[in-house]
Design brief:
Chain lengths: 293, 255, 235, 320, 320
């Protein structure tokens, strides 16, 4: 993150096609979102747009001004739909829970239309909440999927907002029957969460399906065998008006969605968060190897 | 605006205040955090600054260093302490791992106003009064205890008061590293789109800050050894009283 | 992209890889030079704009507080109250009005700087000796000329002291701008925190301090140039 | 020239600084206001240039009511020397003195020339002092700059509030003498405030003695003041040695000289000029340890004074 | 009692404040150091109680070298009245005066009794002033508290740095008189600093005139100083009217009185006591506008003084 300024340089130096005007991308700043935003940036720049990327700490920083002053956002199906749902129907509204990306996108169509947002093609790559344990815990207790923990009592290290969420604490206890003896709000895929699990302070930690650092830390993800996670497939969200003015954006971004898979994304994430390769370089590298650039 | 009615709704709901993650509990955590950080800063900074003030030298360096210390983003400091292999307790809470990191970061944040004011306060005790004390045969310690300290008290206290409010207001960022305190309500609120809740947290923080300020101002007045003649600059309320940080820096420039 | 070459040869982990994760890593500074420079420049911009805006708001307020003593408590109180609004809340609240732009952070930081600026300006104006003011009026200075030619220059030392504290604090505060995409070095710090990137975190924090020291010295220098009469005037 | 009629000042907190004051100052006259601390001298002075607005009464300068004039314009026509000097610490000495001419809109060159002239007039060499800052001058030097600054616009009226208050007695005497010499040349209308009766008697053409609350206890020439104090307050204020003080304000009257005949040259000390005061005569007499002092007009002896003669002269002076 | 031998002080920045000073003060004597500003008077005084360490020479009190004594102990035996008074603003008047006895470890009750006694001695009613804070007192009252505080430990030696500097001339004279009266009873060894020659002449048993750089220009009784200035600097410093000043320090010598016979009662003004000074005699003479003044011893007229008689007496006084 933090390289929003330099992306401007990229846009001016490598624009090849005809001038298509200005385009603003907003994205969350965590590693994977920043990486995907950078891929959008490079592709759209090549297509002739003057791209401005804004990376922010959380979705609420841009959701209020999208699509008014933000044109394109690398999103997750469940994320954007449920965010709009909460905004439209209050934060107690029942969330959309479909496990399939395309289905969820269809379910949320009305909300998206009302907001003036159009989702392009849904990628097969998906980034949902995942829960991990140490390799040792897995081996010792024979635990490989979440249902293996049913009836067991664990301490959960998770994001601030985990409590009461169906895709997190509530789902784990209600659907899987896991006894959460204590919830430590140490953050989503944060170092403190890893450390807490590794140190044995907690047994179960929250991260994402595309976390590239787990293997290097001796941690393993447990399979979500009862599908409590709503679909979080990667998808470009574009302002409807902007899209009708610039229909070529879809032609630029849809191939990228087709090329991305969960495995590839996990590998790319690992390069960034473990080897700390420059996200720009990683993006270029990937786009080139996929023949998109 | 809906946000405001939400805020009011959140604040007026009894359930918001009670329980493990209720406002009261978090407020208590943050008060504990603030108080402890302040005590740490006082223990670290006050004796040093008072002594340098008594000697009348070396203090400008301390003042300038502690002032530049302000530039270290508390957030970064916090992150450094949290990501360091920190020997904190495993238990979570005001004195848990993140709590301790926050304590240290906040204590460092509290140092500049405390050091600056204490140093300047002692040094600026009028020269004629100091000389009178010497002239009547007081030892260094007697002079410090009976003359310099009482006369420095108001300014020292105003430094502590400044530090108190700043630390309290800054303590919310503990939430950024999953630390304790009311910051959690704010981040949680914004993270879950419950803006009313987030703003409610901010409101509580601001109100408590004002209360602390008023209480500290009253304490400062009560502890002032010289009953003030009505003077041009009033020390009461929010006005903060005498030139503190600003005045001291003016000298460091002249020197 | 030139960085590709280096990435390819990274067979053994660099000193900033997550596996080594050293606090100080020259390789990191070298590899991410461009990012670091960009972040520093942005940081500097935000700080300077914020302080300038802060001054522009604080000065009339200080004048008003001095002119109407009954408003003084209100003005100082309000500027202190602003300070107690957590930045975590203030910045997101500003976004709907100011957009995802640098000005959001600039306005936020300027508001926070008011506490110190208003106070020190008031103190500065008050530090002008009464006899000087009286003799100026007695010689026939009108109100505005008195302010510009006499009071302002004489208030400068105290005002500049406040400016120094405000500037240094603003350098630190700017980092929080990362919440809304414009945090300068704060963007690096935030990334460093969330990815446990020690070299990045440390480099950004150190740069903050360096930036503050440089700005501080610059103000001292400017003050030295602007106030020749204070030189050698030892008490 | 300056006329105060029924002037009073009550401060917001109820303090009555000046009750009801009538005071006339003739053009070219040097009037001294003297009185104990807090009796309203400064208040009176500042009402003249409207730094303080009177609550009752009227003040006229040259027949014009000062309250009808724009205060800023009014003040530019009145030189003002403040008790604490009040130089601008951030400006060099020359710039300080140039202030008022520049306010008038004079050219820099003119103002500069005038300022240098004035610095020389008050005994400060421009070459040495022009570029210094006030804090680089001694107290006495600063006082002179204050006077020079007030004179810079060549105002017909000069108000001076304890202008020699901040320096030690030796420098003070020198500054007083210099100002008297200056005033002889300039002939300004001056109102000077002091709380030192010696200074009042020495400097004033007329002296106004204030009692607490701005009451005018006596307004008279120094000789009259010392010789016939109007009441006990004034008598007490001018002090029990006021007889001695009178010596200083009483000129030698040739009528009281004794003839030179029969005085041996050895008995004569240094001679003094007939324009001297009786105090100078007595001082020479005592200093030289002689019984008589010769009095000259030009190069010509016109008589001698003995202690008894001095005493007679003093007694006679009141009878006039 | 106090003996300075070859004492010199050079400050760190090279300023030579005092060159090489020899000065003796007898027990019970009141010595005044006088001189222009910056001549090293305060420096000299502070070297005596080691607030400033001399760079050369030795200082003895009662035969003991002060540098060999623990400075804290030394200072407890020396009362010190500082130029700027230096009361403790956070303590009430009574507590201020009690400070030194309490430092000595005296009981609160004793210290309190002593402090009240001293307050009464310097003319401050304890019932009224004991519980005030310094800022609630006038300048003159504060000065008195400063003196009382210095006297509280009943030190044999008293150092006073311009103790009457901060008040206006009228109050100043009163304080001087009061202190002289006090000193007659207490008989302390006092070193007093002033820059006012009048004060020096009035107060001192002996006066030390300092020239710049701490040079001792003359050390003599007031009468001698005025009568026979050692050099031009002293002559200039004591002023051209020093003859008049001598009147104030010269007592009436009965030998110069003229007989009462032949003087009509109408010619006599108020009578004065034979213990008065010549100045008082002359002042009465001039005030009452008479030719002669009667001199009494008790209720008995012992003679009269005329101006010529006063003059003769003054001339004779130097011949003694
Ligand atoms: N702004 C004010 N408000 C209330 N009272 C005042 C104010 N200024 C002066 N006074 C009072 O008015 C009276 C006269 O004050 P003024 O300054 O004229 O005295 P002064 O004769 O100049 O005395 P000094 O010789 O001490 O300068 C004093 O009692 C003083 O306390
Ligand atoms: N700490 C110091 N460092 C350098 N020079 C000093 C210091 N203190 C005093 N002086 C200088 O020493 C000289 C004598 O100072 P001192 O205070 O003894 O003078 P003084 O006779 O008491 O004068 P005044 O009548 O003004 O009080 C002065 O020239 C003064 O500037
Ligand atoms: Mg006055
Ligand atoms: Mg002195």
């Amino acid at each position: 993150a933090g390289d929003d300024l330099s992306s401007k340089d990229t846009s001016s130096s490598s624009s090849a096609s005809a001038d298509q005007g200005d385009l603003t991308i907003a994205s969350q700043s965590f590693g994977e979102a920043a990486l995907v935003a950078e891929m959008y940036n490079q592709l759209l720049t090549k297509a002739g747009y003057h791209v401005d990327v804004k990376l922010v700490d959380s979705r609420d920083a841009y959701i209020g001004i999208f699509p008014k002053s933000v044109d394109v956002v690398p999103e997750y199906v469940g994320g954007i739909v449920n965010e709009l749902n909460a905004r439209a129907n209050g934060d107690k509204a029942k969330p959309f829970e479909a496990g399939d990306g395309a289905q969820l996108a269809a379910d949320g169509k009305q909300l998206l239309d009302d907001a003036g947002i159009t989702l392009l093609d849904v990628s097969s790559a998906t980034d949902t909440n995942a829960f991990f344990v140490t390799q040792k815990y897995s081996d010792d207790n024979g635990v490989t999927k979440l249902s293996d923990l049913s009836g067991k009592s664990v301490v959960l290290a998770a994001a601030d907002d985990c409590e009461g969420r169906l895709d997190c604490e509530a789902g784990l206890s209600d659907d899987y029957g896991i006894k959460i003896s204590k919830l430590l709000p140490l953050g989503y895929a944060s170092d403190q969460t890893y450390k807490s699990v590794i140190d044995g302070e907690s047994q179960l930690g929250e991260t994402s399906t595309t976390d590239g650092t787990l293997a290097s830390q001796g941690l393993v993800v447990l399979e979500d065998d009862q599908q409590i996670q709503p679909a979080q497939n990667l998808v470009p969200a574009v302002g409807t008006q902007f899209l009708s003015d610039h229909p070529d954006v879809a032609d630029v971004l849809n191939p990228l969605m087709a090329a991305l898979t969960t495995e590839k994304l996990t590998e790319l994430n690992g390069r960034i968060s473990v080897d700390r390769e420059d996200p720009k370089a990683v993006a270029t590298d990937f786009l080139t190897s996929e023949g998109l650039l | 605006m809906r946000v405001f009615s939400d805020t009011w709704a959140y604040l007026s709901a009894g359930s918001s205040w009670t329980g493990d993650r209720g406002l009261l509990h978090l407020m208590l955590q943050q008060l504990l955090l603030t108080g402890t950080a302040l005590v740490i800063a006082l223990v670290l900074g006050l004796p040093l600054a008072l002594w340098l003030g008594h000697l009348g030298r070396g203090g400008l360096l301390a003042v300038n260093i502690s002032n530049v210390g302000r530039a270290v983003p508390t957030f970064a400091l916090l992150a450094l302490f949290v990501t360091a292999d920190f020997p904190g307790t495993r238990e979570f809470g005001p004195y848990g791992r993140a709590g301790l990191a926050t304590l240290l970061a906040l204590a460092l944040f509290a140092l500049p106003p405390i050091i600056t004011n204490a140093y300047v306060a002692v040094r600026e005790v009028p020269a004629d009064v100091k000389q009178a004390a010497d002239g009547m045969g007081m030892t260094g310690l007697q002079k410090f205890r009976r003359v310099e300290l009482p006369l420095a008290t108001p300014l020292v206290l105003s430094g502590i008061r400044l530090a108190l409010v700043q630390v309290w207001a800054t303590a919310t960022i503990a939430a950024l590293v999953a630390g304790p305190g009311l910051g959690r309500v704010i981040t949680d609120g914004f993270a879950r789109n419950e803006f009313g809740k987030g703003i409610a947290g901010a409101v509580v923080v601001a109100v408590v800050a004002l209360v602390l300020e008023l209480v500290a101002a009253a304490a400062q007045r009560a502890l002032d050894p010289v009953p003030r003649a009505p003077r041009r600059n009033r020390d009461g309320g929010m006005s903060g009283g005498r030139p503190s940080v600003a005045a001291s820096d003016a000298e460091s420039v002249g020197a | 992209m030139t960085l590709l070459a280096q990435v390819a040869t990274a067979a053994q982990p660099s000193c900033y890889s997550r596996l080594t994760n050293e606090w100080f890593c020259g390789q990191y500074l070298h590899d991410r030079r461009a990012d670091i420079v960009d972040a520093t420049v942005q940081h500097l911009q935000i700080t300077v704009y914020a302080v300038a805006l802060g001054i522009a708001i604080a000065f009339p307020l200080a004048l008003l507080a001095r002119r109407l003593p009954r408003l003084e408590t209100t003005i100082l109180g309000a500027s202190t109250a602003l300070y107690t609004i957590p930045s975590l809340a203030l910045l997101p609240l500003l976004v709907p009005f100011t957009g995802l732009e640098m000005r959001t952070v600039v306005i936020g930081s300027a508001l926070y700087a008011l506490t110190i600026l208003v106070r020190s300006m008031l103190e500065g104006l008050r530090s002008v000796p009464d006899d000087v003011r009286e003799s100026a009026v007695g010689l026939g200075y009108g109100a505005s000329r008195l302010l510009l030619r006499v009071e302002l220059p004489l208030a400068l030392p105290v005002m500049m002291a406040g400016l120094r504290v405000a500037t240094v604090s603003t350098v630190a505060l700017t980092t929080v701008g990362t919440l809304v995409s414009y945090g300068g070095l704060g963007n690096l710090i935030s990334d460093g925190v969330f990815t446990n990137f020690r070299a990045e975190l440390m480099a950004a924090a150190v740069l903050c301090v360096v930036l503050a020291v440089v700005l501080d010295l610059l103000i001292v220098l400017v003050q030295w140039l602007l106030t020749p009469w204070t030189r050698g005037a030892q008490a | 020239m300056i006329r105060l009629a029924g002037v009073g000042k009550t401060y917001d907190d109820g303090t009555v600084a000046v009750q009801s004051l009538d005071l006339d100052v003739e053009a070219g006259e040097l009037v001294v206001l003297v009185g104990p601390s807090g009796c309203g001298k400064s208040t009176t002075l500042k009402m003249i240039n409207r730094l303080i607005e009177p609550t009752t009464g009227s003040i006229e300068i040259d027949g014009r009511d000062v309250t009808r004039v724009d205060p800023v314009k009014l003040r530019r026509g009145i030189g003002y020397v403040i008790q604490q000097v009040g130089l601008f610490p951030h400006q060099r000495i020359l710039t300080n003195v140039m202030t008022v001419p520049l306010l008038y809109g004079e050219s820099k060159a003119t103002a500069r020339a005038r300022a240098e002239e004035l610095m020389a007039l008050v005994g400060l060499d421009p070459a040495t002092y022009a570029d210094r800052f006030p804090h680089q001058l001694s107290g006495g030097q600063r006082q002179r700059v204050g006077v020079a600054r007030a004179l810079a616009a060549d105002p017909p009226v000069l108000l001076m509030d304890e202008p020699f208050g901040a320096v030690d007695p030796i420098v003070r005497v020198r500054l007083q003498d210099e100002f008297l010499r200056l005033q002889r040349d300039l002939g300004k209308t001056v109102v000077l405030v002091t709380h030192d009766i010696d200074e009042a008697v020495k400097m004033g053409d007329r002296v106004a003695v204030f009692a607490a609350g701005g009451r005018l206890a006596q307004y008279a020439t120094p000789a009259e003041l010392l010789g016939r104090p109007a009441d006990d307050f004034v008598a007490d204020f001018v002090g029990s040695t006021r007889g001695l003080r009178r010596l200083a304000v009483t000129p030698i009257d040739p009528a009281h000289l004794e003839p030179l005949d029969g005085v041996s040259m050895g008995d004569l000390g240094a001679a003094i000029d007939v324009s001297s005061t009786l105090e100078e005569a007595l001082a020479v007499l005592l200093r030289d340890d002689k019984a008589v002092v010769g009095v000259k007009q030009g190069a010509q002896f016109v008589g001698v004074l003995t202690p008894n003669g001095i005493h007679r002269a003093l007694r006679a002076s009141l009878a006039d």
